[in-house]
Amino acid sequence: MPSIGEIVRNSQIWKSVFRHPAPLDRRNRIVVMLTNFFLHLHPVSVKKQGIALSYTWCMGGVTFFLFLVETVTGVLLMFYYRPTLEWAYADILALRDVASLGILRELHRWAAHAMVITVWLHMYRVFLTGSYKPPREFNWVIGVVLLLLTLLLSFTGYLLPWDQLAIWAITVGSNMARATPLLGYEGPFQAVLNVGGVDMITQGSDARFGLLGARFVGEETLNRFYVLHCVAIPLAAALLIAIHFWRVRKDGGISAPL
Length: 258
Ligand code: HEM
Prior knowledge:
2 strands, Cytochrome Bc1 Complex, Chain C, 11 helices, mainly alpha, globular, binds protoporphyrin IX containing FE
């Protein structure tokens, strides 16, 4: 009499999903890893020392986990938050006052702070272990862009509560864009873009203006930061994280101590 487990494993439905028997020996394990969509994302084998917690600090993994927390809580927050002068601040207060949603906002905020800390620690670990050296130098460069995107996510998210702290912090922060080389109207080489005696880079056309959508922080800025924070930067980060992981695999897996 076959057991229930055997009946299930021999059924057409089970076999259509799982094409191979249980991976009990090495050969079958490899086949299962390579033919299952979710498992094929993982390497078939890894160096034991390379995944030791004392070596990686798991900081890349924790950063990725926090990115996922941010994505899920961020999407849920989008159901309740409206990025307009009329509603932004009121919606944030409502999120705080409605207890179950209040914790949602706190989760999003604290995970964001934590992600900034863990991404720095991850970079520090990669530096300490010399894992930026060939063949991993390109992944280091991707990492630098990921670091910038993480900081930009924090920066753009800071404006959304639309309270005094947010407005003045972004006013001060975005003033730095004035000093962008070439593209900031007070920055170095700004005069290079002077065509026929006319300045191309002015207060109304420089990098700061592009960021704010206006001369001063206002409704255009809120709209711009909302789109950057919820769509553009997360998409760019997700794409780069996928390439980052793919490169870890192609560069021979996580480096290991010599
Ligand atoms: C959103 C940001 C990031 C995420 C989610 C992320 C994730 C990861 C993960 C999961 C690994 C596998 C090994 C480990 O966990 O330590 C890794 C490896 C690596 N990361 Fe990142 N990373 C990020 C940012 C960075 C930054 C800022 C740098 C450096 C500027 C960087 C450079 C590298 C390099 C060179 C490796 C290969 C290390 C090795 O083989 O030992 N990453 N990353």
